[in-house]
Structure formats: C-alpha cells, structure tokens
UniProtKB/TrEMBL annotation, chain A:
Keyword DNA-binding listed: no
Any GO BP: response to oxidative stress
Enzyme Commission numbers on file: 1.2.7.3
InterPro entries with a match to the protein in the record: 2-oxoacid/accept_OxRdtase_asu, PFOR_II, Pyruvate:ferred/Flavod_OxRd, Pyrv/ketoisovalerate_OxRed_cat, Pyrv_Fd/Flavodoxin_OxRdtase_N, Pyrv_flavodox_OxRed_cen, THDP-binding, Transketo_C/PFOR_II
UniProt cross-references to NCBIfam families, sorted A to Z: OAFO_sf
Species of origin: Nocardioides simplex
SUPFAM superfamilies: Pyruvate-ferredoxin oxidoreductase, PFOR, domain III (SSF53323), Thiamin diphosphate-binding fold (THDP-binding) (SSF52518), TK C-terminal domain-like (SSF52922)
Molecular function GO labels: 2-oxoglutarate synthase activity; magnesium ion binding
PANTHER family assigned: 2-OXOGLUTARATE OXIDOREDUCTASE SUBUNIT KORA, PYRUVATE-FLAVODOXIN OXIDOREDUCTASE-RELATED
Keyword annotations from UniProtKB, A to Z: Oxidoreductase
Coiled-coil regions listed in the entry: none
Alphabetical list of Pfam families matching this protein: PFOR_II (PF17147), POR (PF01558), POR_N (PF01855)
Protein's UniProt name: 2-oxoglutarate oxidoreductase, alpha subunit
CDD domains: TPP_PYR_PFOR_IOR-alpha_like (cd07034)
UniProtKB/TrEMBL annotation, chain B:
GO biological process: cellular respiration
SUPFAM superfamilies according to UniProt: Thiamin diphosphate-binding fold (THDP-binding)
Name recorded for this polypeptide: 2-oxoacid:ferredoxin oxidoreductase subunit beta
Domain of life: Bacteria
PANTHER family in the cross-refs: 2-OXOGLUTARATE OXIDOREDUCTASE SUBUNIT KORB, 2-OXOGLUTARATE OXIDOREDUCTASE SUBUNIT KORB-RELATED
GO molecular function term, any single one: magnesium ion binding
Enzyme's top EC category: oxidoreductase
Residue intervals of the Thiamine pyrophosphate enzyme TPP-binding domain: 73-220
Pfam families membership: TPP_enzyme_C
Gene3D superfamilies according to UniProt: 3.40.50.970
InterPro entries: 2-oxoacid:Fd_oxidoreductase, THDP-binding, TPP_enzyme_TPP-bd
Keyword Oxidoreductase: yes
Length: 655, 368
C-alpha cells in the first residue's frame, strides 16, 4: 500500500551498480548518468569491468560495475566510496562490500543468492539470512533485499518472453527503482529504449515495463520510504552534454581535421581501451575521415605515415602494448619530420597487463621509448571532456612543427564521463597546414647558371619546422627516409658533425614548442602555500578534490596540472622553485616526478598507486595534509573529512 | 552480421586517375635520375633494374611529381634515392603498409614499392600478404637475390635448404618460400616473375604491372655477386636457360627446352595429369591439345599455383617466368575512397556547421 514518502535533500550521492558482466550494468549506469546529466547535476562516472567479454558467470572476476557521483555543485571525481551499492548477485556484493563506508545503503537482488552462486562468490552461508544476527557481516549497512529478478519476470509476463529473456530486463527494473529514489527524469531512458529496441517490439515492451515497474515499486511499496532530491548544480553558462573521453577524443580529431582543412586518416589496430576511437571515427566519413583497420599495430602507424606523407592529418590509436610495436615507426616519423598523432589510451602494464584498467605508466615510454635521440612532444588530457581540446592541441603541434605527437589518454578518461561544456567552433584554433608549393633554395648548376631547388630540410627560423611538400607538387620531388639527413638538403649524410647537429636541431625543435604555450596555471588561492601538488592526465580530478579538502580544513596548498609533458612549459622551473615541497601524485611508480627531478633538480616527492583505478581523493588528501604539516612545521588534522569520514566523498567547495 | 554489397568500381587501368603529361611534354630516363650517386656493389643486379625502371617510367607518360616510390630496408631499398620522383626509404619490412596509406589517401598517385626477399618475406611478411589480399593499387617490385646482402651474407627466406652462410655454417635448415606461390596463396590479383638481366622481359612485365589496377607483385630474380653469385646461372646461361626457364605467355601453350623450328614449341611441355596436377612431359609424347595453354586471367588461381610449384626450391635449375596471374578485382583504395565520397556527397552545410551539429547532438542542456 502506498504511504506518504519523505523527501530528503542531499548535496551529492555516489551510487555503484554492480552485477555480473552479462547483467547490463554498464548500460544501467550509462542511462542513470544521462538522466542525471539532463537533470542538471554535475557528475563524474567510473566504469569498471573485466577484460573478458563474458567472464565466468557469478564469479568475482566476472563482476562489472559502474559508479556515478552526482551533485548539486562542481565535483571532480567519481568518488572514493559509494553511498549506495546495487548488487545483482552474491559476487557483486562480495567484490564491492569492502569499498562501502558504514551506513551505506545496499540494494540487493535476492534472486541469485542460491547455494551455487554463494559458493561461486566464496560465501559459505547466505549473508542475507543473518541480517540482525551476531555474525551479520552486513551489520552497519542499510540492507534492502528485493527479489529484483522475480518481480521483473512477473512484470514483463504479458510480452511472452522466455524466462531468460524476461530476467534480462532486471537491470531496467533496478534503473527504474533508483530513478525513483533520486527523482531522475524518465523520458530520456524511455526514448533511448525506443530507439535501441525499435525492431524488437517484445523486448522493447519488456524493458519499458521493467523500468516502470522499478519506479512504481519504489513509489508504492513500503520497502522504500525516502526519496532523495539533489538539486541541479550551478554550472558556468553554456550548453552541456555528458561525454566519455574516447568520444571527446574522436570528436577532437574530427574537429582538428575541420580546422586544419585536412582529411583525417586513421590507421589503427583494435585494442582495449582504444578501439572506440576507431569505431567512432569510422562513422564520420562525411567529414572526409578515412579509417583503415590494419593487419597489425605496425601497419596501422605505417599507413598513417604514408597518409601524412601524402598530405593528410594522420592519426594512429592504440594502447601501451601497441605503442611498443609502433616504436620503430614513431622513430621514422621523428626522422622524416612528418605530422602524426599517436594516441595512447593507457592501461595497466607491463605486457598485456590489465587491459580494462587504468594506469599512467607509459609516460617514460612516450618520452624515451625509441632508439636514438628521438624526441616526441607529449600532450595529456586531464578529464574525459578535455580529451577534445587535447586532441586539437596535439594536432596543432603536429602540423605546425611537422612532428609526431603523443596524446596520452588513459582507461579511466576513455570510459569515464562528465558533463562537457560544448565549445563553439569559432573558439577552436585554426591550424594552417602550410604546404610547400615552390622551391626554397637557389643555387647554380654545373654551367654556372642559377637554378631553384627544393630542400626538404630547410627550416622555418622560428619553429624549426621543415617544409611539408606533398606528392603531386611539381618541382618539389624529394626523398625522405630513416637514414640521417644532411642539414638543409636532406640527402643521406654519414658526416659526424652533421649528425651531432641534426640530433640537436630535432631536440631544439621540440623544445621550441614551449614558446607557443600559455603560462602554466597555478591554483594557489591564498598565495601562501608552501606545498605544490602537480600532476598530469586523469589524476586531475582526485588531486583537485584532495586540495579542496585540505583547504577546507584551513590549510594552504597549491595545485598545478601539466597538459604538456614534452616540452614542459617554460615557466615550470620557476614555479617549482617557489614552493618548499612538491608532491607528484601519479598512477605509476614515479614517472613525472623522475622527469621533474632530472630537469629541474627539485626534490619532487612521489605519491604513487597502481591499483588500476583512479587515485582516491581522501587518501591523497591525507598525504597532501601530511606534507603541508611538514612544510609548515605543524600538525595537520583534516578532521571529519579524513579517510574515515562517514560518507567519504567530496564536500562542496568553500565558495 | 550484415553484409553490404560494395558494388564494383569500374576502374581498370592502374594509372587511370594519375595526371599525365600535357600535349607536347616529353620525359626521358634522365628526368628520372636523381643527383645521388648510386652505391651498389659493382656488378649488382640492382643496377640493371634501376636502368630498366628509369627508362621505362617515361613510357608511362605520367607527371613525375605524381609518382611515389616507397622502400623498406636492404640493398634494393636504396632505390628511391636514385629516382627523381617523390620517395620514402622507410623501415624494415613496412613499405607495403606505408604505400597502402599513400595509395588510399590519394587516387592521383602512381605508387611503387621496392623491397627484397628479406624485407618483404621475412620481417615484412605480414604486410606483404595483407597488401596483396586488400589489392591496394600499387606495384611491388620484390628483388629476390636469395640472400641477405646489406647485413653481409646471411641466408634469407628464399635461400635453399642446406645453404652455407655466415649464420648457417653447417647449412640452413629453413625451408624456403616461393614468393609467387605465397602471393597466389594471398589471393594477389597480379603476380609475375622476371629476371634482372632480361631488360626486355623486365620492361614488359613492369608495363603490365603498372597498367594493372590493384596490387601487382613482380618477383625479380636479382643476382648478388658479392654474397650469392651464380644463384641464377642456370636461367641466365645461354646453354642452359632454354631448359631452365618455363616461359609463361597468356594464351600460348606452355613449352620449353629445345625449340622445334617448325612448330615453335619446346621439347618439354606442361600437361595436366588425370589427378589434376601439372607436370612436365615430352612434347613429342603428348597430343598437341593436351599441352596446357597459359591462362593468366583464370579466376581460379589453382593452375597458376600449380605452375609456380614447378620452381626449384633448391638450386634454381628450373623456373616458370612471366605473368602467372592477372585478374580484375575491386581495389581496397578505390572502395575506401568511394565510401568516403559517398558519405561526403550526402552531407550538407559547411564542415564547421556540421561539426557544431555533431558535437551538439544527443542529450544536451543549457545553463544560463
Ligand atoms: S651486397 Fe649484393 S645485393 Fe647488395 S649491393 Fe652488393 S651485390 Fe647488390
């Protein structure tokens, strides 16, 4: 029977949907995210799934989860610990329980708590049978056992599906229930389902019925008495959409093609977590984009280098193992000085490592992973939406300086999402391909007559870029290749002095990119911080959240984040020297910190985790706090915002 | 899975979309010689091929700036430096992949790959078979000297078993590839074999290869006098060559050996056995209509493959020479460009407007 429901205001919530990898948890999370985005909350998401397409059913390795943190204010991370766990089976409960703070809500589908599934998850007895007893492992949590599957099957009866197909709609039931709990708009999901299942009326009907049944279950039963309200966030004016990093990166590549007026050419070999970019770009032929799925990683970059030589905006996309295979070809692009984007969506390594987990341990590979002195500029996006601008920036550098450029994304950015303020096209930089069209060097022939020649390695004085003369341009026929080039004329040269000079010129050319960069932004609100926290890539969110927490507790800390890892911004050295302590949080064993130490002789201190997951803001805040304490010679207590806070996630920033 | 009929672009000539010389413009071999000093060993077969290519290129009548040569690593891969066209001397084994990018990006380029037996069949084997499978519009010149020259004399993937080299002091135990068989197995649409020292045959094969739309694989037997001298003596020596070379001419009966002045037939002939295999028989002992007539255009590659198997795997006492296969098949690059062109033809508005529409699509919301 319906009863009056209470409505409670919250400023933020972290929900984790967890189930078997066949349970559709990513889709459920995605839909909840879209609903929240349309509603106007700020949000950050964290999908987490096994590498196997269908890992053994019901087991812990087979658990797939999707976490969303949404709030009425600006937030930076997907949150450390979920307030609500939706667990579709015993394995999902067991795998995620350790991440929950005391007091968290657990909504659990009781249907799969059979002896067999409990065994698979490693439970010797059913924890749901012990609620309230002495050995209740769920004590301290608010457990809501619901037979989600059973009710779903009942709700979709009229569509005449097999029991298996009927049960599959349980994720929509869960989505409906959670949508009710948090007052999410339902229209986007209904519209989505209508599109997705347009051709299968019974499945469509069942999914919509399950979704609505979930909503009604919340509204009408006595199990759930509280509905929560999280107001829309105040965000800067603009038009927003929710976007994942891989999609933003793909759009950025299309945008770079439009703004450079060059056809985009992608040579790629499928690899997790980068394949989405290949899939996405293959849809945009209308923009003149060509995608070539090559026979291997090397052929992917080989074809891209060929397209670059032919005058297109060449791109190759991969993850770390693919970069290892492409290294020799990247060296060729360095030597031939052709524009090329090399996208590495980093994952856990070494070797095959953790294909679906995030890491940022390929920085030194990008920096040094080639034979010889082979400098390659490196650009890194800091959030999913930022992948768009980072791709455009990488293209600007590649085309302007005639060089391969690394774009270092990672698995978290690739699949994570956030609201993205859609930029206006006019605000994007114009990139000038500036093809060579005529000879650039005057000389005399054997008869002493003046002749005009084309020298492929005669450089622009400011950028040191060489001319890009593409086949089909009469009079500029020339040969390039991997052998050392004679300065200017570009013919093969084994001259020792020439080699020394060319090695230095190639290094200097990359260094000069720094002259085109804006000053590094340092966020130091009080101007009195003694500690600087500096990072790169996807750690931006956790670092920002950690710094906010430290500041809220009354301490000073400065934050800077590097988009350009090679070359570093010109003012970085001075900035580092302004602070007594420099902390470098990274999802590796200290790669940026090593570069900073080598380059600037600063005592950069590492904060390093390689769990295959984003850094946890609360733990990082403790580390920052401890360092602030050392630097300022006093005890630092972050108080209730510390690791053991009841609801351990980001507070609204002090406004 | 859905399959889409891609149609069959009706382009037939390999150079059809490449700009040609204007009326009255002429080119000579000299126009194609770069100012770089040629640096192969004296007597190297590469010289002969270079000369043949330089004097053949003007016959194409194409604009020099629209010709691109791409090579990998090895002695022969220096080739592009000596031709005054666009060129890239790339990395070991990867030339077919780079050429695939060039050919796919630009329909107006005449693309050539120069490679060797080590470059194409060992380190770059994967790229070679995939280029052939895709049928990208380009011509691959595979210089087969059956040895590693640039690294100074190790056995190659085409060296005969038992060969003593620096890396195989007691004889190579590697079974060799037959490049023609390999290409046919990879479903190449044009496969030929020729000889460095036979300028006329070489030039005729180059012309046919360039005219073919799709990947043309031309194996060129090339002597390396420094590390593998005499590897092709049997097919070059005036006394033995008639018996060693099985000439393949489309539409002609395949015979070799001592020629009968009256019939023009050699004293040996290829015949099909009852089991379907191809074997060598005495011409005199078989009926005239039993002699196999060469059909390079047969859609079924199995006869061409069987003929290719008549090549000696050891010392080369016998080898079919000529165009094994020349069939029409849609090319990867034509189809890739057609897909893009079709999509471009369907869109409206400036790229900027379409980009704005793209990134603003889906569920959006506006603040302020
Ligand atoms: S080593 Fe052999 S193949 Fe190489 S240049 Fe010398 S003769 Fe020619």
């Amino acid at each position: 029977m319906s009863q009056t429901k209470q409505v409670k205001q919250l400023d933020r919530v972290i929900i984790r949907f967890a189930g078997d990898s066949g349970d559709g948890m990513q889709l459920t999370g995605d839909r909840f995210t879209q609903e929240s985005a349309v509603f106007g909350n700020d949000l950050v998401t964290l999908p987490n799934f096994p590498a196997e397409i269908r890992a053994p059913q019901g087991t812990i390795p087979g658990v797939s989860s999707f976490q969303i943190h949404f709030a009425d204010h600006d937030i930076l991370t997907a949150g450390d610990r979920p307030d609500v766990l939706v667990a579709m089976n015993p394995a999902a409960l067991k795998a995620n329980l350790g991440d929950l703070p005391k007091g968290a809500t657990i909504i659990v589908d009781t249907h799969d708590f059979t002896k067999r599934n409990l065994d698979k998850a490693g439970y010797s007895s059913n924890p749901l049978d012990k609620l309230g007893e002495v050995d209740d492992i769920l004590a301290g949590f608010q457990v809501q056992p619901v037979d989600l599957t059973g009710i779903t099957v009942e709700a979709v009866k009229e569509f005449g599906l097999s029991r298996k197909d009927a049960a599959r709609a349980k994720n929509m039931f869960a989505l409906g229930l959670l949508s009710w709990m948090y007052g999410r708009p339902t229209e986007p999901t209904i519209a989505f389902l209508e599109k997705k299942f347009a051709k299968v009326a019974d499945i469509l009907g069942a999914n919509i019925a399950a979704f609505k049944a979930g909503w009604n279950y919340g509204e009408t039963t006595e199990t759930f008495v509280v509905q929560y309200e999280i107001k829309p966030a105040t965000m800067a004016a603009g038009t927003y959409r929710n976007i994942t990093g891989n999609l933003a990166l793909s759009y950025g590549l299309v945008a770079a093609g439009v703004r450079s007026e060059l056809p985009v050419f992608l040579g790629s070999y499928p690899i997790t977590p980068a394949s989405d970019i290949l899939h996405e770009l293959s849809k945009h032929k209308g923009f003149g984009v060509t995608t070539l799925q090559a026979e291997d990683e090397i052929a992917g970059i080989g074809a891209a280098i060929g397209a670059a030589f032919a005058g297109q905006l060449a791109v190759t996309t991969t993850s770390g193992p693919g970069i290892a295979l492409k290294s020799e070809a990247i060296g060729l692009a360095v030597m031939t000085e052709l524009p090329l984007l090399v996208v590495n969506v980093q994952r856990g390594g070494p070797s095959t490592g953790l294909p679906t987990k995030t890491e940022q341990a390929d920085l030194l590979q990008a920096m040094y992973g080639r034979n010889g002195e082979a400098p390659v500029p490196i650009v890194a996006p800091q959030s999913p939406g930022d992948c768009f601008a980072a791709a455009v920036e990488a293209a600007r550098i590649a085309i302007t300086y005639r060089t391969p450029v690394f774009l270092l994304s990672d698995g978290y950015l690739a699949n994570g999402s956030e609201p993205w303020a859609i930029p206006s096209i006019d605000a994007l930089p114009k990139i000038d391909a500036n093809f060579a069209t005529e000879p650039n060097h005057s000389t005399t022939n054997a008869k002493g007559e003046p002749v005009e020649e084309f020298w492929p390695y005669l450089r622009d004085e400011t950028t040191l870029a060489r001319p890009w003369a593409i086949p089909g341009t009469a009079g500029l026929e020339h040969r390039i290749g991997g052998l050392e080039k004679g300065e200017g004329h570009g013919n093969i040269s084994y001259d020792p002095a020439n080699h020394d000079r060319m090695v230095r010129i190639r290094a200097e050319k990359v260094q000069r990119i720094a002259d085109s960069l804006p000053p590094l932004e340092v966020d130091d609100p009080s101007g009195e911080a003694k500690v600087l926290v500096i990072g790169w890539g996807s750690t931006y969110g956790p670092i920002g959240a950690a710094c906010r927490r430290v500041r809220r507790a009354g301490y000073n800390v400065a934050q800077a984040h590097l988009r350009h890892l090679n070359p570093f911004p010109n003012d970085l050295g001075d900035i580092l020297k302004r602070y007594d302590k420099v902390l470098v949080p990274e999802m590796n064993l200290g790669q940026l910190s090593r570069l900073l130490r080598a380059e600037y002789l600063v005592d950069a201190i590492g904060y390093n985790h390689v769990y295959g997951l984003p850094l946890k803001a609360a733990e990082l805040a403790e580390a920052v706090g401890a360092l602030v304490g050392q630097a300022e010679g006093r005890d630092v207590d972050l108080g209730e915002h510390g690791t053991n806070a009841p609801a351990d996630h980001e507070e609204a920033p002090a406004r | 899975m859905t399959t889409i009929d891609l149609g069959n672009p009706s382009l037939r000539s390999g150079t059809e979309l490449v700009p040609s010389l204007a009326e009255g413009e002429t080119q000579t071999g000299k126009d194609f010689s770069s100012d770089q000093e040629v640096r192969w060993c004296p007597g190297c077969g590469d010289y002969a091929v270079l000369k043949a290519v330089q004097s053949f290129l003007p016959d194409l009548g194409l604009r020099r700036e629209n010709i691109v040569f791409v090579s990998g690593i090895g002695c022969s891969s220096r080739f592009p430096y000596y031709l005054d066209t666009y060129g890239m001397h790339s990395i070991h084994g990867r030339a077919p992949s780079i050429a695939t990018g060039i050919a796919t990006a630009r329909e107006d380029l005449n693309v050539w790959v120069v490679t060797g037996d080590g470059d194409a069949l060992s380190i770059g084997g994967n790229h070679l078979i995939h280029a052939l499978r895709r049928n990208v519009n380009m011509t691959i010149l595979l210089f087969n000297n059956r040895i590693y020259g640039l690294t100074k004399g190790q056995y190659s993937p085409t060296s005969e078993t038992g060969k003593v080299t620096k890396s195989t002091p007691v004889g190579s135990i590697d079974h060799p590839f037959n490049p023609v068989s390999l290409a046919l197995g990879a479903e190449a649409s044009f496969v030929a074999r020729t000889i460095d020292s036979d300028r006329k045959h070489l030039t005729a094969v180059l012309a046919a290869a360039a005219a073919h739309r799709g990947t043309s694989l031309v194996e060129i037997y090339q002597n390396c006098p420094i590390f593998n001298d005499g590897a092709f003596d049997a097919i070059k020596d005036n006394d033995t060559k008639a018996h060693a070379i099985i000439p393949l001419v489309h539409g002609e009966p395949i015979t070799f050996g001592t020629r009968d002045e009256a019939t023009g037939l050699g004293d040996k002939a290829l015949v099909r056995t009852a089991s379907g295999a191809i074997e060598v028989a005495d011409t005199a002992a078989v009926a005239a209509d039993a002699i196999l007539v060469h059909d390079a255009q047969n859609p079924d590659p199995s006869t061409a493959f069987a003929i290719s198997r008549l090549t000696d795997a050891g010392y080369l006492n016998r080898s079919p020479i000529g165009i094994f296969r020349q069939v029409d098949r849609p090319t990867y690059d034509d189809q890739a460009r057609a897909q893009v062109a079709d999509a471009v033809a369907k869109v409206q508005g400036s790229p900027e407007d379409r980009l704005a529409a793209l990134i603003n699509a889906g569920d959006t919301w506006t603040v302020g």
